[in-house]
Design brief:
This protein is 25% helix and 31% strand. It is of the alpha/beta class. α2 packs parallel to α3. The relative contact order is 0.14.
C-alpha cells in the first residue's frame, strides 16, 4: 500500500515503529534510553536527534490537560522530548482521550496556547473548553 502523501514518520515510541513496519511509510526511530514503562526512547541521545530535525506536523500524547498547567506528563524525560518536538514543529497536535481533561501530572510540557489542535474522543468540561477556545486550540472529536 502506498501512502496518499509523501511523509516520513519520526518517533521515539517503539510500538509506533512496530506498527509502521511493512507499511511502506519511511520511519525514523530516534535513539536514546528506553523507558520500560512506556517503551519510549528518551534522554540526551534522543534530544540530540530531535535538535537536528524540523517537523511540519507533530502528534503528541499527554497524560493531563488543565487550565492552570496546560499539557502535562508523568515522566520528566518524556516531557522534555515533547517540549523539543513542539519547538521544532510548525503544527502541534495533542492526541488525548477524554479522561485526560482536568487531570494534571507533575511535568508540564506546554501551555494551552502552545498547541494548535487536540484530537480526542470527548469534549472537555466548560471551564477547560472556554480556556482552549481562548487559546485558539481546535478540538477535533474522533469516534
Amino acid at each position: 500500500m502506498q501512502p496518499d502523501r509523501q511523509i516520513t514518520v519520526v518517533t521515539n515510541a517503539l510500538n509506533i515503529a512496530a506498527e509502521l513496519q511493512n507499511k511502506r511509510i519511511p520511519t525514523i526511530v530516534i535513539g536514546g534510553m528506553m523507558l520500560d514503562s512506556t517503551a519510549t526512547l528518551v534522554g540526551p541521545v534522543a534530544a540530540a536527534a530531535l535538535a537536528k530535525m524540523a517537523f511540519n506536523r507533530v502528534f503528541i500524547g499527554t497524560t493531563g490537560i488543565t487550565v492552570k498547567h496546560g499539557y502535562s506528563n508523568s515522566n520528566m524525560h518524556e516531557a522534555e522530548i515533547k517540549q523539543l518536538a513542539i519547538a521544532k514543529a510548525t503544527e502541534v497536535n495533542v492526541v488525548a482521550d477524554h479522561t485526560k481533561f482536568g487531570r494534571q501530572d507533575l511535568f508540564s510540557f506546554a501551555p494551552l496556547h502552545g498547541i494548535h489542535r487536540i484530537v480526542t474522543d470527548g469534549s472537555p468540561g466548560e471551564e477547560l473548553r472556554a480556556a482552549l477556545e481562548e487559546a485558539s486550540v481546535d478540538i477535533l472529536l474522533s469516534s
